[in-house]
Amino acid sequence: MAKLITNPLLEIRLKGTQSQMGHQYGEIIASQGGYHEMLDFYPRMAESLLLSGLPRRARKGPAKGIAANLMQWAVNALSKNRDEDYSGRMTAMLRAANVSPEVGKHMLVMDVFQNSIGVLGRLGALHMNDRALLHAIPACTSAVVWGSMSADGELMHARNFDFPGVGVWDKSPTIVYSTPDKGIPYAYLGARGADVPGITAFNAEGLSVTFHTRFHKDVDFSSMGVIDLGHDIVRQARTIAEAIEIVASRKVASTWGIMVTSAKEKNAAVIETTAKKCRVTWGQHDRHGQTNHYLHSDLHDGEIATSAAWTPYTIDRMRLMDKFFRDAGERGGATLTDMQNFLGCDYEVDMPGKSRMMGSLVGHVMSVQSVVFKLQSGIVSLSVGEAPTGWGPYLDLAVNWSGDALRVVDLAKEKLSVVTAPYRQAEKARAYEHFQRGYLMDFGGAPLEDIVKEMQRAAEFAPEDTSLQFVLGALALESKDNAAGLVHFNAALASEAAPYRVGQNLLWASRAAAALGQKSEAEAYRRRLYGIQQPGLGELKRLAEKDAARLFPRRDFSDIVLNMAMLDAA
User: Fold this and answer.
1) In a domain, 38, yes or no
2) What is the number of other CB atoms lying within 10 angstroms of the CB of residue 331?
3) What average pLDDT does range 173-185 have in this prediction?
4) 385 with 505, same domain?
5) Any bridge partners for residue 180, and if so which?
6) Does an H or E element contain 273, and which?
7) What is the Rg, in whole angstroms, of the alpha carbon atoms belonging to the chain?
């Protein structure tokens, strides 16, 4: 069952100087509407990200004001160093759309967030009492095939844009063609109100560019932000080598992995940055991919994992991608449909085919834009479904640099791909609706009891989903109901098979049992955890050993911090 975007897809064409194109874009979206929610969302999103690592009761009052002030300082610092042409484009767009130019600063939010984690890591202050002060968020997957790994030999670049804008970004997609007075014609995928060239983009020379989050100690608030860096690449680079040269010559503010592919060259490279270094990893064996950890060994020193779950989250999605590549190779290469389906993967690599709502998934609740570039054939296959957009349906758009300034795409007249995602079908679809509603309420700071109700309703329609049982267990502990928490962790353990997720449930089951005075049961859970031989469980085992050494078991977990985006708790 397809769940289509709320607002029609806009295909927009701009021409002239950056300022002129900004003004044209602003006039067009002003005429179409549906953009104020996006522009209102950016400042609120940044504040929510900064507060998400705090216990729920601490997210209001003084903390909220401090977060708002810190965010304003950070965006002001980054904005001072913006390219004048690009800054002028943003200002012209906002004025034409009757929006304060101040809003444009908040488009730099991801640089700010990643840099905040980097600074805390550099100061040794990222964690307090084994808990991250800032929560990482799911942050994109790209898979590229060509030659022998592609069914027809053409290069295909599949990309999920994972971003907190669920219910905003995914409802109003745009494809914006820009023909600048200086540089190469380029296009980017965005949403109404988000004029962000470069994040997910391509150009007339057959290059496609996608950015992915990294976390590292080497950051700088006085250098070039991601929007402008990507803009430079698609406007100036004709080859992958030229893209590398552009990035290497810039002083980059934040920590990124940039997938650059060339339909003409039939090759791909990931350009990885910190504020101090730039390194490149080329594709091999007709394939390349990235999630959110540094691929080049030169950048491992100083890399940050925000919590125990971060590393398995990014590594296991890469393992899932590697399996996709192996399977596609055995079939004679991936098709466009295969690439689309990969972006919708709703299972973990260690539990293939077992749909779940949370975990190390490619098709994730925060996937707000999904696309497959097939530029040799002049095709951009874009999801026109709501989040998780990787589930589709997809619409194949013909690349077209000429034509009307605005085309409003009537999806009723277009041929869309079939949606096969289990959580879009029948009862499971109802389960996902409740989960997504609860997830958004949690991100927005709703009362705990309201979030619990939504998750309980989701579990009624999907009782076999172990990720839901873990979340319900954590929420029960936060509600000071340790007995109910233990029941949910045991329910998850009854069918969970992914080693890291088993370890998570064992750790929290041992804590709930200890808080209930069940000392021997708590020790039994810990012994089971110690016995799992799987990379990535070292931190959970360390925490379990620390628990075992406590003279008095902790009985109050009301300050637990649950990260539904990554399926983690601390």
Assistant:
1) no
2) 11
3) 97
4) no
5) 16
6) strand 267-273
7) 23
Instruction: Give me the pLDDT at residue 63, please.
Output: 66
Q: Of 237, 50, 214, 49, which Cα lies nearest the Cα of 139?
A: 214
The four Cα atoms 221, 224, 225, 228 give a dihedral, to 10 degrees, of 160
Find the CATH number of the domain harbouring 153. 3.60.60.10
What is the residue range of 192's domain? Answer: 9-19+136-421
CA distance 322 to 464: 27
DSSP 84-127: HHHHHHHHHHHHHTT--GGGGGGGGHHHHHHHHHHHHHHTT-SE
> Backbone dihedral region of 373: left (phi > 0), alpha (psi from -120 to 50 degrees) or beta?
beta
CA distance linking residue 397 with residue 12, whole number of Å: 13
* Residue 407 tokens, joined: 């085309």
- Nearest-angstrom CA–CA distance, 134 and 459: 28
The β-bridge partners of 186 are: 178, 203
Q: How many domains does the chain fold into?
A: 2
Give the tokens for residue 48. Answer: 């929510």
How far does CA 484 lie from the centroid of its chain? 31
As a whole number of angstroms, the distance between CA 372 and CA 381 comes to 5
Q: What confidence tens digit (pLDDT) does each residue in 371-385 have?
A: 999 999 999 999 999
Question: CA-to-CA distance for 463 and 240, rounded, in angstroms?
Answer: 48
Name the token pair of 153: 């030999």
Domain assignment of residue 366, yes or no: yes
Contact at 8 Å (CB) between 496 and 529?
no
* Structure token pair of residue 248: 């290497």
The tokens 């499971």 sit on which residue?
428
pTM: 0.95
- CA dist 507 and 547 (Å) reads 9
From the number of C-beta atoms within 10 Å of its C-beta (0-12, 13-18, 19+), residue 44 rates as middle
- Enclosing H/E stretch for 210: strand 207-213
Domain boundary among 421, 450, 480: 421
Query: What pairs with residue 258 in β-bridges?
Result: 211, 271
Assigned token pair, 406: 């605005």
- Kindly report the backbone phi and psi dihedral angles of residue 440, in degrees, each rounded to the nearest multiple of 5, phi listed first: -65, -35
Answer whether residue 419 shows pLDDT above 90. Answer: yes
Alpha helices, H only, 375-425: none
Token pair of 371, please? Answer: 């696309």
If one compares 275 and 50, the residue with the highest pLDDT of the two is 275
Domain end position, chosen among 358, 387, 421: 421
Residue keyed to tokens 């409740």: 434
User: In terms of DSSP bridges, do strands 9-16 and 173-180 run parallel, antiparallel, or are they unpaired?
Assistant: parallel
CA distance 513 to 477: 11
Same domain for 413 and 488, yes or no, is no
